[in-house]
């Protein structure tokens, strides 16, 4: 367990003691929020201690949890696909589609996303090793590990470095220079929502750099090949192989698979956007994050994230990304543990005057939609 602790703590920057560290001040909901270097060091030590406490407690309970979720996901997928073979009967089609949609949500949110963060590497189970895991999504796992685990979680909400600010498609910050292209912000956002797995798949392609002429499509030949191979495999599985197995019931299986993918896409989009872009979340400049200590890194993660309130099943189906703040603080701790430490994180934030953004899904999503529409304009 000591090796595991060292591995996890290595994921975030060490606390610096340089004299040129910055005091950061942000305006959140009309209130000034300040973090000095000295405050940040103490803030970082408290959060590090909380992290160490959780890691020291990892064990059989965590292993049992993830294995039960995987077992449930597989049962839902098998049951859902089986019912779709009888999809000519409306109740069977509805039940099969719902079960398949939930299985895909679990596979992406609570299993794939979290396993690929290395949350269960300490178990030594090859099937749960983050660097090898592949999920039921058009996005290749190795590309996700770079664009999400490294680029996004390292440079969270740093304009010009975190490509998750708008996914190379949208304008989601006033610090992003406006262009006439962004008049289509609401349309792009809707298309990204319904086609979310493909939007995520194209993330590593860096389309905004291609549009600007900074790089050419030829420079992304290897990336494009990886995307094509994964999209082709997913398409053949959902829209060719399973419908053909259904024989005369192929149209119902095809429609069920498409609907399940749509439900998963919309749900994933809503959870992820509500964790990153609702009212109160902050962006940072490159200059603000120079010589950043671990405490300041924690400060940025909290101000750049937002939580969602809900019950046990809501948190499970969100992959516990409803605790986006805790996830950004400790991305490689098993996600179901985030609910257990949320109150302690909130208490630490309160002591240091750091806002803790949380609210119900409808409220957070409404503020995201307002932001998308507002930022379509100069």
3D structure, described in words:
A hairpin with a 2-residue loop joins strand 1 and strand 2 (31-35). The strands form two sheets. The chain has a two-stranded antiparallel ribbon. Strands 3-4 form a two-stranded parallel ribbon. It is mainly alpha-helical and 378 residues long. The protein has one domain (27-61, 135-374). 58% of the residues lie in helices and 4% in strands. It is built from 15 helices and four strands.
Properties at a glance:
378 residues, two-stranded antiparallel sheet, two-stranded parallel ribbon, 15 helices, 58% helix, globular, disordered N terminus, transmembrane helix
Number of domains: 1
Rounded to the nearest angstrom, the distance between the terminal CA atoms is 52 Å
Number of helices: 15
Taken as a percent bin, the fraction of beta residues is under 5%
Which descriptor suits the 3D outline? globular
Number of strands: 4
Radius of gyration from CA coordinates:
21 Å
* Widest beta sheet: strand line-up: 1-2
Instruction: Provide the helix percentage.
Output: 55-70%
Give the uncertain stretches in residue-range form: 1-10, 13-19
Major sheet size, sense and barrel closure: 2 strands, antiparallel
Order of helices and strands: HEEHHHHHHHHHHEHHHEH
What does the average pLDDT come to?
Answer: 93
Specify the structural class: mainly alpha
In short:
Residues 92-358 form the Fatty acid desaturase domain. With 378 residues, this protein is mainly α. It has helices spanning 2-9, 37-56, 60-84, 90-116, 141-154, 185-194, 196-201, 207-212, 221-245, 250-276, 294-303, 312-317, 324-329, 338-351, 361-374, and strands spanning 24-28, 31-35, 307-309, 358-360.
């Amino acid at each position: 367990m000591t090796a595991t602790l060292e591995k996890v703590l290595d994921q975030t920057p060490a606390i610096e003691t340089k004299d040129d560290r910055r005091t950061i001040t942000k305006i959140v909901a009309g209130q000034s929020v300040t973090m000095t270097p000295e405050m940040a060091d103490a803030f970082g030590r408290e959060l590090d201690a909380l992290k160490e406490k959780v890691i020291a407690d990892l064990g059989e309970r965590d292993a049992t949890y993830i294995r039960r979720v995987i077992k449930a996901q597989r049962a839902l997928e098998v049951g859902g696909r089986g019912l779709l073979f009888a999809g000519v009967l409306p109740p069977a089609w509805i039940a099969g589609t719902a079960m398949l949609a939930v299985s895909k949500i679990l596979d992406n949110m609570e299993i794939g996303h979290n396993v690929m963060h290395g949350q269960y590497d300490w178990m030594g189970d090859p099937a749960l090793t983050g660097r090898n895991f592949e999920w039921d999504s058009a996005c290749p796992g190795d590309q996700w590990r770079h664009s999400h685990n490294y680029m996004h979680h390292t440079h969270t909400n740093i304009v010009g470095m975190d490509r998750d600010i708008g996914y190379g498609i949208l304008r989601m910050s006033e610090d992003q220079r406006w262009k006439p292209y962004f008049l289509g912000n609401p349309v792009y956002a809707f298309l990204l929502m319904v086609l979310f797995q493909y939007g995520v798949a194209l993330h590593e392609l860096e389309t905004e750099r291609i549009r600007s002429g900074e790089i050419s499509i030829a420079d992304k030949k290897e990336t494009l090949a990886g995307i094509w191979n994964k999209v082709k495999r997913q398409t053949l599985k959902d829209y060719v192989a399973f419908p053909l197995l259904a024989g005369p019931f192929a149209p119902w299986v095809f429609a069920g698979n498409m609907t399940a993918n749509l439900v998963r896409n919309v749900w994933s989009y809503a959870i992820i956007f509500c964790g990153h872009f609702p009212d109160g979340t902050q962006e940072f400049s490159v200059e603000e994050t120079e010589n950043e200590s671990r405490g300041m890194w924690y400060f940025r993660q909290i101000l750049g994230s937002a939580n969602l309130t809900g019950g046990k099943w809501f948190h499970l189906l969100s992959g516990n990304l409803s605790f986006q703040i805790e996830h950004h603080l400790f991305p490689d701790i098993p996600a179901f543990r985030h609910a257990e430490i949320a109150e302690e994180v909130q208490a630490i934030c309160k002591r240091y005057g750091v806002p803790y953004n949380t609210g119900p899904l409808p409220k957070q999503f409404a503020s995201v939609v307002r932001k998308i529409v507002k930022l379509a304009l100069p």
